[in-house]
Design brief:
This protein has about 650 residues and is of the alpha+beta class. The protein has helices at about 1-30, 35, 40-65, 70-75, 80-85, 95-115, 120-145, 170-185, 185-195, 200-235, 245-270, 275-295, 310-330, 335, 350-380, 390-410, 420-445, 450-475, 480-485, 490-515, 620-635, 645-650, and strands at about 515-525, 530, 535-545, 550-560, 565-570, 570-575, 580-585, 585-590, 595-600, 610-615. Strand 9 and strand 10 (about 610-615) form a beta hairpin. The longest helix is centred in the N-terminal third of the chain and has 32 residues, at about 200-235. The protein is globular and about 85 Å long. The two termini are about 40 Å apart.
Length: about 650
């Protein structure tokens, strides 16, 4: 009865999502019918409870290995460790969509809980939009992706979970990524609520910004963890490959980054209102597009689940409805949304506008490279592969001016600045950056243009961020270093963390790209390889038995100048049920480098294929991403300045047409 209970809970959740989506919007449209608007909050909480029950039922079916449930039979096995039976719930199409719906309901309940300060009509509209989106996904689950479908004849044994997913990364990566992906529905809902009400004022931007920061921080962590997982799990040693599914999560991140900066301008200066609405719509639309790419069957990838075209058509219809409807509403309100004061050429607003343009163009470039091969294939015009050469040639040049502006922007004043004052403010940091760049060739073992450019940009961002923070610290009226530091607003600390995170990331990506070394070798036990100043000696290769796999494990002794450094034990596994070979790499990790060994096939005469990597400073990539996410979290948690800005306070409310929700 567990599966049936879960199915009934899904049906109940759909009814509650429709109630949450329809009644509050009608109540807000019909002269603020209080009773209907009041249904939004309890409906959001009850929808979360119903989906939590459904998810718990599916989880229990996996724990019990109930093979009468089709999904369990296809993705579980009696020998599968418990932790992977639990994570197998989202290691497939149906379960991952159920997790999506659950997280969406969780965001809705969080909005219902934390938005008491909003007026009732705005709250009802925001929750109403989220309810309609949730209803769309629940219709998708119930009619095309039912996770509780039964089998007439239950097998005695399941097919097992894909070995690629039997990894600790599977426990953390998908929930974090979904928290960011789905969390972009909140700024989307706030944007539509503001359009419906005709009130694109500072209050809307102020209310939306913390939610956007939270979603952006989760998405940053999710992408970084996915990169780290692929780095050590796939045995290839890379951290980013411009895979279509990687791009599907990266594109919403780019637009969410632009949205954060646009919200700051809308809140402080009352400008960029049309920009902000479009970025909110675009960010969530790209999240839906990513769902379509992964679950439509249009591509084959280690990330992709579904192969049923019907599911892809449903998601495509949902994407068209959400994006088309929201853009139609924006078009109807465009003259009002476009209102705003002039932007001076030399002002922080102007630099943020340029930053947003660069991010949007970069997103469009990634979108073109991702979708063009799919469109060509769908039209029957042949197979086309767009890989790293295209993305590196198009994306990286767009990011260079954005990184330069990152150092300048915080030093420029709002509304209007003057070139002599800005030159004075930048003089010190420019001199420091030039001196550091001049010393780089002396500190590097080899000099390459790309290496120098990347490290110079990283140094520029770090020095400019530290310089601006120092100026703010010196201007604080408090006495004592610690008192001044504590007096700085939380947003200042958050910006420093996030921008330093970008600098660390750029430095790590540059150093590992230009300094990594790799060798594929054939070794007999007792033979050695020298790479990156280390000697790798294959000691032995032995068989071993895991809980649901058989493996051979190599023992590789690593020394440097004759001194022992580490003993690495890479494995090559074959899983019992699927007979699928897997490479489990061994890594000796330090902040300054990774020693990375992957075991290949036996080559006869007792020799084995090994792939050995020396990865200098690769861990700065994930450290930088962690700092960025921490900055986003600090900003979201920081106490907001509740005083209305003078300019924003003077912005007129936009009249809503009669009968508009």
């Amino acid at each position: 009865m567990t599966a049936e209970l879960g199915h009934y809970a899904l049906a109940l959740a759909l009814a509650l999502a429709l109630l949450q989506g329809v009644a509050p919007l009608l109540g807000a449209a019909r002269e603020r019918h209080a009773a209907w608007m009041a249904l939004a909050v309890p409906a959001a909480w009850l929808q979360l409870a119903a989906l939590a029950l459904a998810y718990a039922c599916l989880t229990q079916a996996f724990i019990d290995t109930d093979f009468s449930v089709k999904l369990v039979a296809e993705h579980a096995h009696t020998s599968l460790p418990l932790v992977y039976r639990i994570t197998a719930v989202w290691g497939n199409h149906e379960g991952s969509i159920l997790l999506w719906a659950l997280i969406l309901a969780g965001w809705g309940a969080a909005v219902a809980w934390r938005t008491h300060a909003l007026d009732e009509a705005t709250r009802a509209r925001v929750l109403g939009v989220m309810g309609l989106v949730g209803a769309g996904f629940l219709l998708f689950v119930l009619f095309t992706s039912n996770p509780f479908a039964r089998l007439a004849d239950a097998p005695l044994q399941g097919r097992d979970l894909n070995p690629l997913l039997q990894d600790p990364g599977m426990v953390i990566h998908p929930p974090l990524l979904y928290m960011g992906y789905v969390g972009l529905v909140v700024p989307f809902a706030f944007a539509l609520a503001a359009l419906m009400a005709g009130r694109l004022d500072a209050a809307w931007a102020r209310a939306s910004r913390p939610w956007t920061l939270c979603a952006w921080a989760f998405l940053t962590l999710g992408i970084a963890l996915g990169s780290f997982w692929a780095y050590y799990e796939l045995g290839w040693g890379g951290w980013w490959f411009w895979d279509p599914v990687e791009n599907a999560s990266f594109m919403p991140w780019l637009l969410a980054t632009a949205l954060l900066h646009s919200l700051a301008v809308s809140e402080k200066r009352g400008a960029f209102r049309a920009w902000t609405v479009l970025l909110a719509i675009g960010g969530f639309s790209l999240s839906l597009l990513g769902t379509f790419i992964v679950r439509s069957g249009v591509l084959s990838s280690v990330h992709a689940f579904a192969t049923d075209a019907t599911r892809g058509l449903f998601i495509l219809a949902l994407l068209a409805t959400v994006t088309g409807g929201s853009l139609a509403l924006f078009a109807a309100r465009f003259p009002a949304a476009a209102r705003g004061g002039p932007v001076a050429p030399l002002s922080r607003e102007a630099l943020l506008l340029v930053n947003n343009l660069l991010l949007v163009v970069a997103t469009a470039a990634v979108l073109l490279g991702t979708l063009y091969p799919l469109v060509i294939d769908a039209l029957g015009l042949g197979k086309l592969s767009v890989g790293p050469p295209y993305f590196n040639a198009v994306f990286l040049p767009l990011m260079m001016p954005a990184l330069l502006l990152m150092g300048v922007g915080p030093l420029v004043r709002w509304q209007r600045d003057h070139l002599p004052r800005l030159a004075q403010a930048l003089r010190g940091v420019v001199l420091l950056a030039l001196a550091a760049a001049a010393l780089l060739p002396l500190a590097l073992a080899r000099v390459e243009p790309g290496l120098l450019v990347g490290l110079t940009l990283a140094l520029w961002i770090a020095l400019a961020t530290a310089w601006q923070a120092l100026q703010r610290w010196r201007q604080a009226p408090q006495h004592g270093a610690w008192a001044r530091l504590r007096a700085l607003p939380g947003g200042q600390h958050a910006m420093v963390l996030a921008h330093l995170g970008v600098a660390v990331f750029v430095a790590g990506a540059t150093l590992v790209t230009h300094g990594q070394q790799e060798r594929d070798v054939r070794l007999l036990p007792g033979q050695s390889l020298d790479l990156g100043g280390h000697r790798y000696t294959l000691s032995e290769v032995a068989a071993l038995r895991g809980p649901n796999y058989r493996a051979v494990q190599a023992t590789v002794a690593v020394t440097r100048a004759g001194e022992p450094v580490a003993t690495l034990r890479p494995q090559r596994r074959v899983y019992d049920s699927l007979r699928m070979p897997m490479t489990e790499v061994a890594i000796h990790r330090r902040l300054s480098r990774d020693l990375y060994v992957a075991l290949g096939e036996p080559l006869g005469d007792g020799s084995w294929a090994l792939r050995v990597h020396h990865k200098p400073w690769v861990n700065l990539i994930w450290l930088g991403a962690a700092l960025m996410a921490l900055g986003g979290g600090v900003a979201a948690a920081a106490r907001r300045d509740r005083r209305a800005r003078a300019v924003a306070a003077d912005l007129p409310a936009l009249p809503a047409p009669e009968g508009a929700p």
